[in-house]
């Protein structure tokens, strides 16, 4: 843009971590900042006197960008794509490591017990966080240290979701926190998918009864073994309910796609089930036919399910997923955690609990309440909306 004499332009430079679950929220944040009512993009242009960078927004995992920002005398804001509930537990990683909590195995009597320092999680949840406790602890320590040196942190969550104990996460940080999610609710589904989404599946969903379909997806990174794949297939077919199953190429170890499924399985399923490589997930969750979401509890998937009021079956793999799943099942009570992994009998029981039992109806009621709270938080005067207004003012003050 040009004025009479000077070329005036200020930019916000964003650095996402190059993984689906991190790229998507960063691009969503970019479009929120560009198109928010306050129209930050326009204000930055009006406000600027020279060609310059207003600030950097970088993924929390790019902790080393704080040194770059300091060297260039730029403000750095941090985007945390994972959940605030897992950030709460991250505070305990050093204790877990010192006390040997990471080494507690299935055979140990404590495996199923609650962790004394964090009673809302179990030792078995800690065991799932990482196969490399020292490396993970060092990474998180660096992330936390460099985040506290930044100008502020942006969370893809909403205040009403969390228990009062999560508040401490925001209060204890010596920098401003902006909790302005869920990002994907600000505008329609973004086109940030790295894999092509099979949109034909929406036509099949249109032919299904309301709340009748089990939607299954384990996100962009998780892997399962061939025998776990078989257990999932058997669990689904034994339930005898319609399903839409995302089998990402590469999901199953040593297999291209679904070639290890016996012909008999496909015959038995017939038109009752569909398998796709990648789905338009937000549209699937918003579809009236979707009855539950069997998920790995990546934070984006968890938020997307809450936003559409769809109860969950939880099969977490690593990182923040086990903590998210524990909150979904035990604290918010909006899903069932498959405590014993992928086994056909447990799967069938969990699916029936959510899809057919009174317990499932109660979960649906609770998650519908959360959905209403999401919508309120995004309206003018709601907590996320207020946080966005504060963030825009803050960036303009740089
Ligand atoms: C990873 C981590 O595992 C997660 O815990 C962390 O918070 C972010 O990075 P990922 O496995 O990518 O997450 O899962 P998730 O955070 O749920 O993100 C997956 C995204 O892919 C979602 O936005 C979902 O809508 C999208 N998706 C998934 C599709 O568009 N189609 C699909 O078929 C499956």
Beta-strand residue fraction: 5-15%
Topology as a string of helices (H) and strands (E): EHHEHEHHEEHHEHEHEHEHEHEHEHEHHH
Number of strands: 13
* Rg (CA only): 22 Å
Small molecules held by this entry: uridine-5'-diphosphate-xylopyranose
Which strand order does the major sheet show? 10-9-8-11-12-13
Low-confidence blocks of residues: 1-5
The assembly state of the depicted protein chains is single chain
Family: Belongs to the UDP-glycosyltransferase family.
GO molecular function, one term: quercetin 7-O-glucosyltransferase activity
Keywords: Transferase
Organism: Lactuca virosa
Fold topology:
Layout: E1 10-15, H1 20-35, H2 40-47, E2 52-59, H3 65-71, E3 76-80, H4 84-90, H5 93-98, E4 114-115, E5 118-122, H6 123-129, H7 133-148, E6 152-155, H8 164-172, E7 177-179, H9 201-206, E8 213-217, H10 226-239, E9 243-246, H11 263-269, E10 273-276, H12 281-286, E11 290-295, H13 299-307, E12 312-314, H14 321-331, E13 335-337, H15 344-356, H16 358-378, H17 383-396
Parallel strand pairs: 1-2, 2-3, 3-6, 6-7, 8-9, 8-11, 9-10, 11-12, 12-13
Antiparallel strand pairs: 4-5
Helix pairs in contact: 4-8, 6-14, 10-15, 15-16
The protein binds uridine-5'-diphosphate-xylopyranose.
